[in-house]
């Protein structure tokens, strides 16, 4: 049976994040935590493969203890197991340190519940927003990576082959590769399902498996958390809001209004730059 | 290859203190398809030239592909002092393993202190793999780049849905790596009199070791490349349905632009996701952005607020989009947009007053007779 791992992260709902105008810092209080939007598309694709071919779906997340809610949500949707990798020592990790720990965890998941064929990650997170953790994990596991996937066209579970469509700026690439493989999911991939009753019932009592540094005897402590992160945040600032003197245009007919706008635009450098002149 | 996979590469980071002093210069990894370079590659060379001069270090470029010799020369014309260039059949299409192996080889042999990639799908895929292998720090999606007296790359990027900017540094490792957005930096004027050294590099991975195969590339016909567009006419929930985009398309055609959308327009199935602007869509910086029937929620405006000129057309005078617009029109987009398209078309025909205006007035007059 196929074994699929889905990497998810609990992130603050960025709709709710505001900037404190006095201190210019982020107000995180009261900001609800959600499962990163793209990760749910990864989970949905794993569940579709499970529905069609039969598969074991294990969800993995590195985060604080409160992230167990995110894993329970995934179990409610249909995941078989959730693993929370949680330890104070992991805090402050950048993408390099995160991919190290997540890759170690996936390796361990493979040892506990069978070799892993596919890993799904999201395209990127709403908070980290780099899309670097997926390629990092693939590289450490020595899996082939297929990023920005918008469609799984074909999957052969006996030959362990997969054909996907990768989204690029100027088109779509059909790519074939052998499992094991790591895929990063775009929103176009699918529409995440709502949790159905059996899953919801299972999730109520469900407690995710929790692993700390002690569960990884070979872990290199120099490579985790803040200390293991090569990138550091130098300074942060709130960009000056763009100051615009909005000019509201009015006229007694729509056509005059249209020409008034064009007159204004033709009075700028736009016609020269855009070749209208 | 699949049979003899290595164990997870746990021992990635250098064991002891490393002397990085022989790492010098800036390397830009040039991205191409079918021997045509992505604009962002030359833009990065332009920005890097300024930094390389500050560092008094060479500016280098890496060109990978098949039939790409001309691009090696182009890289010189756009400012590179030294170009590494690898031309081989198996490198025709981008694939992570052979490309990253080649980049790693060049980085280890020629030791640049900074390596930059375009923050494209391919650039981000490649940079993420390389940074992990080296290992080193990688900053994603930068919109500002600079170097300081300690030769540190100050890579700045938007954070928390563009509400903040953060400068990221990497002090411990070399090279310092970043991906940077398209359309933000200026390319140098192409100059065929510039000279530079071109160094041929051998491919590092034979085809039979590469599991991934690119079966085909389907160029998007109705899809758009918003990031490179100079004019975008965007529609939101106010369009009321897919037909509204036909109206916008006409204006976009007249202005030489493309059509964009807000998230609800995509979610309702009126248009495909590659048209979506905003936090969960594309970040765009066109010269002109016309928002039609879009209220101006922050998740939308983070993706378009840096456009040179913004025009907003909305029925609701209180719509927040007007706060960031240079020009605002309170009105029904189904009247204003066709009128604009018509007026623009007649101006392009060489009638600055706009024949459209005259015809439009005639129609209005005719209607008032009937009323
Ligand atoms: C995590 C997250 C990510 C998101 N990402 C994005 C994103 O990437 N991009 C994005 O756009 N949104 C995004 N959103 C959604 C965002 O919050 C807003 O809901 C959305 O931008 C609103 O779209 P709209 O302006 O088209 O619709 P509305 O807010 O409903 O505005 C419609 C406007 O049309 C006007 N109107 C109606 N009829 C007419 C007419 N005939 N003529 C003229 N004007 C008319 C109305 O006055 C109104 O102002 C995201 C939300 C979340 C939670
Ligand atoms: N802490 C984490 N735990 C598990 N998966 C993660 C974590 N951080 C990132 N990921 C995965 O990597 C993807 C890209 O994240 P990022 O590089 O932060 O944009 C996410 O969509 C997740 O699938």
Q: What distance separates the N and C termini of chain B?
A: 79 Å
CATH topology of the largest domain in chain A: Rossmann fold
**For the record, what is the CATH homologous superfamily label of the largest domain in chain B?**
HUPs
Give the termini separation of chain A: 64 Å
Instruction: Provide the residue-averaged pLDDT of chain A.
Output: 94
Tally of structural domains of chain A: 2
The hetero compounds bound to this protein are: flavin-adenine dinucleotide, adenosine monophosphate
Query: What structural class do you assign from the helix and strand content of chain B?
Result: alpha/beta
- What percent of the residues of chain B sit in helical stretches (DSSP H or I)? 25-40%
Q: Which CATH class of the largest domain in chain A?
A: Alpha Beta
Rg of chain B computed from alpha carbons, rounded to a whole number of angstroms: 24 Å
Total beta strands of chain A = 15
Q: Quick one: biggest sheet of chain A?
A: 9 strands, mixed
Strand numbers in spatial order across the main sheet of chain B: 7-11-6-1-4-5-12
Order of helices and strands of chain A: EEEEEHEHEHEHEEEEHEEEHH
Major sheet strand order of chain A: 11-10-9-12-8-1-6-7-13
């Amino acid at each position: 049976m196929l074994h699929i791992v889905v990497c998810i992260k609990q992130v603050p709902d960025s709709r709710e994040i505001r900037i404190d105008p006095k201190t210019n810092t982020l107000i995180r209080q009261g900001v609800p935590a959600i499962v990163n939007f793209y990760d749910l598309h990864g989970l949905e694709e794993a569940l579709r493969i499970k529905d069609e071919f039969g598969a074991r779906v294990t969800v993995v997340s590195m985060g604080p203890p409160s992230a167990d809610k995110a894993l329970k949500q995934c179990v409610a949707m249909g995941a078989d197991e959730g693993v929370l990798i949680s330890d104070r020592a992991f805090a402050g990790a950048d993408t390099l340190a995160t991919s190290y720990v997540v890759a170690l965890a996936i390796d361990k998941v493979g040892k506990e519940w069978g070799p892993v064929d596919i890993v799904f990650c999201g395209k990127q997170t709403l908070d980290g927003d780099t899309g670097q953790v997926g390629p990092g994990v693939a590289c450490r596991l020595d899996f082939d990576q297929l990023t920005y996937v918008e469609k799984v066209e074909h999957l052969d579970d006996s030959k362990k082959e997969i054909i996907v469509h990768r989204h690029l700026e100027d088109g779509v690439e059909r790519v074939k590769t052998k499992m094991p493989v790591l895929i990063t999911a775009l929103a176009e991939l699918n529409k995440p399902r709502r949790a159905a009753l059996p899953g919801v019932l299972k999730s109520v009592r469900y407690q995710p498996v929790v692993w700390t540094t002690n569960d990884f005897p070979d872990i290199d402590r120099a490579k985790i958390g803040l200390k293991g992160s090569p990138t550091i945040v130098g300074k942060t600032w709130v960009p000056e809001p763009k100051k615009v003197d909005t000019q509201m245009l009015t006229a007694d007919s729509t056509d005059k209004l249209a020409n008034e706008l064009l007159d204004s635009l033709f009075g700028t450098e736009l016609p020269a730059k855009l070749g209208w002149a | 290859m699949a049979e003899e996979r290595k164990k997870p590469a746990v021992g990635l980071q250098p064991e002891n203190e490393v002397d990085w002093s022989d790492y010098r210069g800036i390397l830009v990894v040039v991205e191409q398809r079918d021997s045509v370079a992505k604009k962002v590659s030359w833009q990065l060379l332009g920005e890097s030239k300024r930094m390389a001069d500050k560092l008094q270090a060479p500016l280098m470029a890496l060109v990978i592909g098949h039939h790409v010799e001309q691009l090696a020369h182009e890289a010189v014309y756009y400012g590179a002092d030294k170009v590494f260039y690898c031309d081989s059949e198996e490198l025709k299409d981008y694939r992570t393993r052979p490309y990253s192996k080649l980049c790693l080889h060049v980085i280890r042999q020629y030791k640049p202190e900074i390596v930059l990639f375009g923050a494209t799908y391919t650039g981000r895929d490649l940079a993420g793999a390389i940074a992990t292998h080296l290992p080193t720090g990688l900053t994603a999606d930068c919109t500002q780049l600079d170097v300081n007296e300690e030769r540190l790359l100050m890579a700045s990027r938007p954070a928390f849905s563009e509400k903040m900017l953060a400068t990221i540094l990497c002090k411990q490792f070399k090279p310092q790596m970043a991906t940077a957005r398209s359309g933000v930096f200026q390319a140098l004027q192409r100059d065929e009199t510039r000279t530079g050294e071109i160094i041929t590099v051998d491919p590092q991975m034979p085809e039979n070791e590469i599991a991934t195969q690119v079966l085909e590339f389907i160029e998007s016909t109705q899809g758009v490349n918003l990031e490179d567009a100079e004019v975008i006419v965007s529609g939101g929930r106010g369009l009321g349905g897919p037909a509204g985009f036909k109206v916008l398309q006409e204006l976009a055609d007249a202005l030489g632009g493309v059509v964009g959308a807000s998230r609800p327009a995509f979610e309702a199935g009126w248009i495909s996701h590659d048209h979506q602007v905003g936090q969960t869509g594309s970040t765009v910086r066109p010269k002109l952005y016309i928002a039609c029937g879009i209220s101006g929620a922050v998740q939308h405006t983070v993706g378009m607020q840096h456009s040179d000129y913004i025009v907003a057309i909305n029925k609701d005078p209180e719509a927040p989009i007007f706060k960031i617009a240079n020009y605002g029109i309170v009105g029904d987009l189904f009247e204003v947009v066709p009128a604009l398209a018509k007026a623009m078309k007649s101006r392009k025909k060489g009638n600055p007053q706009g024949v459209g205006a005259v015809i439009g007035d005639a129609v209005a007059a005719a209607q008032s007779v009937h009323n």
